[in-house]
């Protein structure tokens, strides 16, 4: 497969790139900082330096042509403010969707977050930091902008709290699961498995659990 990953220098994205490259897929990694090119090349990706906060649809679509799927794993980062939660976590995800449609790429995997339902309908959850509320709102808005599009086959993956523990290879994956932790290794493994399943669409929540990754993904078909 030929796969394009937006936010390719992120921790999950780099793990995903290495998995895909190891199984023989072609990976293009989108980053905005040219200083990250060497890291992407060492992971096995072909770097595309492009700032998704300032690129236009045509410019991005040119980098997607011929791809089988796109993965949005970009984010404003833990130290970014409210404004960048919107410009990256929402607007850049929508831009990638627009460009994918323009380039004729149907398969779209959006890495979102558990907890987005807390801000549905404009709700503000108690005891949650305002920046994290903005993050959840941006993720929910991206989900709502992508899922209805008939030109895309979209899977929204909502991981639980991410950890850097070694991957277990076992997860809980379903439309709704109890909150919990999940390793970044296992998130990447689930994304890699989902990319081979061309007929699944919709929202899936993910934590570590008892089921082998491949079995958990196959059960969602």
From TrEMBL:
Classification via InterPro entries: NAD(P)-bd_dom, NAD(P)-bd_dom_sf
Record's signal peptide: none
Family matches, as SUPFAM superfamilies: NAD(P)-binding Rossmann-fold domains
Domain NAD(P)-binding stretches: 7-197
Source organism, top-level taxon: Bacteria
Name of this chain's protein: SDR family oxidoreductase
Provenance organism: Goekera deserti
């Amino acid at each position: 497969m030929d796969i394009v990953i937006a936010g390719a220098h992120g921790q999950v994205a780099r793990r995903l790139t290495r998995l895909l490259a190891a199984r023989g897929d072609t990976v293009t990694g989108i980053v905005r900082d040219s200083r990250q090119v060497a890291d992407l090349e060492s992971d096995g990706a072909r770097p595309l330096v492009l700032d998704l906060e300032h690129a236009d649809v045509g410019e991005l679509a040119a980098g997607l042509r011929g791809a089988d799927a796109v993965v949005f794993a970009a984010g404003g980062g833990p130290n970014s403010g409210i404004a960048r939660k919107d410009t990256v976590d929402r607007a850049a995800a929508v831009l990638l969707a627009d460009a994918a449609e323009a380039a004729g790429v149907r398969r779209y995997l959006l890495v979102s977050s558990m907890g987005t339902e807390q801000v549905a309908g404009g709700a503000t959850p108690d005891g949650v930091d305002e920046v994290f509320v903005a993050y959840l709102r941006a993720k929910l808005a991206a989900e709502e902008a992508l899922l209805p599009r008939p030109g895309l086959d979209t899977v929204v993956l909502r991981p639980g709290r991410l950890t850097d523990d070694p991957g277990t290879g076992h997860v809980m994956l379903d439309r709704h699961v109890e909150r919990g932790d999940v390793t970044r290794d296992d998130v990447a493994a689930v994304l890699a498995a989902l990319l081979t399943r061309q007929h699944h669409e919709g929202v899936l929540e993910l934590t570590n659990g008892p089921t082998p990754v491949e079995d958990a993904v196959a059960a969602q078909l």
